[in-house]
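User: These chains co-purify. Model them together.
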Amino acid sequence: MATRASLPTGSLPSRWTLLPRNGLPAAVGIALALGLHFWLQPAMSPFHTKVMLDSGINIILAVSLTLVNGFTGQFSIGHAGFMALGGYASAAIMYYGSYRLWGGPAFAGGVLSWTTSQGAFDGPWLAGGDALFVVACLGGGLVAAVAGYLVGLPSLRLRGDYLAIVTLGFGEIVRVVLQSSRYQLFDAGEIARASPLHLATTLGGSLGFISLPFYTTLFWVYLFVGVTLLVTYRIKYSSYGRAFLAIREDEVAAEAMGIHTTRYKVRAFVLSAFFAGIAGALYAHSIGSINATELGFQKSFDLIIMVVLGGMGSISGSALAAVLLTMLPEVLRKVTEHINQVLPAAYALPDLRMIIYSLALILMMILRPQGLFGLHEIWDWRPWRRPRPSSKEGPPRP
Amino acid sequence: MTKLIQTLMDGTAVGGLYALIALGYTMVYGILKFINFAHSDVFVLGAWMSWVVAVQLLGLGLDAAAPTTPAPVWAGPLVLVAAMATCGAAGFLIERLAYKPLRAAPRLNVLITAIGVSLLLQNTGQLRVFFGPYPKRMPPLLPERTLVEVAGVKVPLVDVVVIGMVVGLMLGLEWLIFRTKLGRGMRAVSYSPPTAALMGINVNAIVSFTFVLGSALAAAAGFLYGMKYPAGLKQPADAAWVMLGLKAFVAAVVGGIGNVRGAMFGGFLIGLLEFFGVAYLEPLYRDVYVFSLLILVLLFRPAGLLGRATVEKV
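Assistant: Joint model of the two components:
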């Protein structure tokens, strides 16, 4: 595996990526999100909108997981736990907040949070509901980040394997604790009387948190996708990113170079948890409910395979893999349905998704362990340039 | 008092099963320094192979009129040996096909492969051609009777057999590792594979043997689990199996991963903690006790209760 330092200077950000530095990316991101919301979304069927929302949410999750599993070389397998925490926190803020402010969980947002398939809408551009939704997303992110700090601090002092164990256990604990919370309140009077602490522990229990207002639109999802991509991009090409990569390549050497390894690992982990929390919030308000049983080990694993497939340390690779793997089950389902219509019942194909995924993962690790993209990004690809003589990878690690 | 003894019995029996599985985790970690996440699925394979041999090959428990007819005496050992042999072979193949090509790769890659193998086993296991997507019931291999009665507590034969076999297997393993030439080889490889190779030890053979041994122990645990909880034979990808495997893994870490005696101790500790927590505290938080212990141990004794802290070498 090539270390960052051994890479030729050409793969550092060129003036083409340095040029549009400040302000422009944000403007482009917002414009794109608005374009998706006002032109693309009305033209798409609800099913395609749903796939697109899921793709966006998975991009946030995969790219944030890349921060930990790709850049820093740690191994977290509890990412869905942070997603669940963020989702539940945002659900509590949205649901109980809407009751407190407007007397019911009905939609109170503006046109930016409105999906056209729900019918015509003549409301304001932005309304109180949107503000509450942004607060809920950020609140969900913060709750997840605090949890990330508490989980990361003890386990990141140790070597890589222990983080895997602790995050796995953490995911399970989150699930159990959320499922043993009190049942959701549906009575406006009761909600008005209850204390904030009481409400924060009344999260629906084993039934999940339901009847949330639908606020997640392509605009919000791709706005946060833009933020996530921008932040990880800027981190990757900063001294922070180089510290992360140094830790990943050789922890002892990184420490010898003056990098406080634990501190950097915890920072990467907290940031990653923050974005996972936001993704959880978007997820909860795109399907109108959240249940911790769906956000278990399986979900975490889906995210890991996105990162591994896309490239351990590649932002664009993870994002691309997230999109592909969100669409793949839909495609596979169609294919299986078609084949099963032809085959007699006894030979009906089962859902082969997980078998294909796990085989892909094993083969990937044996044949191309750095993932499809490795550390490279789409914007590193310059076919018009002559291949550099030093593009060979360095000697394998001892 | 009755409750206390009952909890003690159950906790010890299940703790012993955790310990048997934990031994596989800890031996592989001791030698190859990675967490073999597929190990818990080998345990599941053991439980299901016991069912296949008992029901489909020997035809036990198929008599609907008398479902609790005790099996012949030779059936139990036969099923156990068959399950251990299949799982040993499976362990050998897993190591050869999935892990050996990655011997020189970074540990993270091996860890990811292990998760891949684990999911592959789970999902192929629940295909119809293998074990199918439905839970099954293990036929009784032992007569259902009470062995002794202590202070009003009935001690069932099953519990005694389970605990007895766990202790027997552990003593055998202890002898193998600390008293035989093979065991000395294993300890040498775990200390330093290149040095062991220089001393004329066939490292690949030792690694393969470790996998076979660990898998056979997991198969024994699977068999005993089927005897203790006949209705607990969930479909191969069920989350309950993952949980059992995880707790066994926690046992290995709590005892000090890489440490064989630590795994035995950790298994019993986890089992007792779980059952006492369920019996005397809140049953809903069954899994929380175990993982909280894990986090406490990692905070205060990261090398495990019986492990010795080592500084990472450059």
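DSSP finds eleven helices and two strands in chain B.
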